[in-house]
Amino acid sequence: MAWMHSASSYLAISQLLFLACLYLVYFPGKRLAHLIALFCLCLTAYILSRQPDLGLPALSAVLSMMAILAPAVLWVIARYLFEDNPNIHKGIWVLIVSYLALRGFGLWVYDGSQSRSSLFFLIFFYVPQLIMLLLACHVVYMACRGRDSDLVELRRQLRMPFAIGMGSIVGLIIGSGFFWLGSPQLDSLYFFVIFLLILFINLGMFQIHKDTPQLIHMAGEQPAPGLVPTVSAKKNGVATDEQRSGTVPISKQDQMLIDRVLKAMQQERLYAESGLTIGDLAVKVSVQEYRLRKLINQSLHYRNFNQFLNQYRIEEAARRLLDPEEQHIPISSIALDVGYASLSSFNKAFKDTYQVTPSVYRSGLAE
């Protein structure tokens, strides 16, 4: 069965290296392309580290550390790809460095005499593996969480295949226990599955080749604020040039749809409905959901439906917080009234917009 082990290894490695080169060549200088290439190298290192005749201890240690890095790299990729706010909390970096340090130290001092039920294994192997599992699970969560509100169609279509494909690959790595569980036969199965998944991704790249550059270029970039023309600011039912700055010309039919959406949002205050989805809005303005997604994304410059809602909600909340006649109304009541389901979500959205909390903004200390 040695030939099967070698064949599955070479097949998987060839697809991984092809994918890495593809992104590095076609998207030079792009952070997401570099991260994808690094992830491919981490998976390649994992496959090489599982070879029975590796021999060199130093090389084995390097490959092991690169393989252990795979879940963290995948998490960062998912963050840059699916989150429009790419900033990563310092605590996440501390968590990643900590689990790498623990696992690295464990591999360095392990001499084979420690029992797998010992405290040594718990601290230096099982705890890092649990952290890696949590990172992998959060990757799937990030990919699935924002699918319904995602207005970038290519990214929306990519979410589920990414969650299933990449989650499965990292799940195989973590499930094998990185060098502790498995056999040549089981490893051959792992490698063949990785080969099939990466082959599927490579074929998909050619299918969506025209749209992929846009997704790679925008990944990890903070989106510009959406442009929401107001009904009162229109001239003869057409948005002004400033409101449409940077967009392609809007057709008369699309402009009529925009008018209906703006009227529903501003005059009927639909944004104040807690839990409003783009499907709900599509029903209320009598338009197909896919067309409404495209309209809000391409004509109003929003990547996410929640950003679109927050623009209205935060604008009204800010006005009411500074209104002397509403100083007696609790901030939580204003938050609920403009459509937020909780005070914490309102505080986060408000601070993302104004860089201060609602209470500081109301007190007049905001600059």
Could you describe the 3D structure shown?
With 367 residues, the chain is an all-alpha fold. It folds into three domains: 2-218, Rhopdopsin 7-helix transmembrane proteins; 223-303, no CATH class; 313-367, Arc Repressor Mutant, subunit A (Orthogonal Bundle), CATH 1.10.10. The chain has helices at residues 2-26, 31-49, 57-82, 90-109, 119-145, 153-175, 184-207, 212-218, 252-266, 278-284, 289-300, 305-321, 331-337, 343-354, 358-363. The chain is elongated, with a radius of gyration of 25 Å. The protein starts with a helix and ends with a helix. Mean pLDDT is 79; it is low at 227-247.
Q: Key terms for this structure?
A:
367 residues, 15 helices, Arc Repressor Mutant, subunit A, mainly alpha, Rhopdopsin 7-helix transmembrane proteins, single chain, elongated
> How far do the termini sit from each other?
70 Å
Find the count of extended strands (DSSP E, 2+ residues): 0
Spans with pLDDT under 50 lasting ≥5 residues?
Answer: 227-247
- Structural class determined from secondary elements: mainly alpha
Shape: elongated
What Rg do the Cα atoms give?
25 Å
- How much of the sequence lies in strands comes to under 5%
What is the H/E order? HHHHHHHHHHHHHHH
CATH topology of the largest domain: Rhopdopsin 7-helix transmembrane proteins
CATH class of the largest domain, anyone?
Answer: Mainly Alpha
- Biggest pleated-sheet summary: none
Number of helices: 15
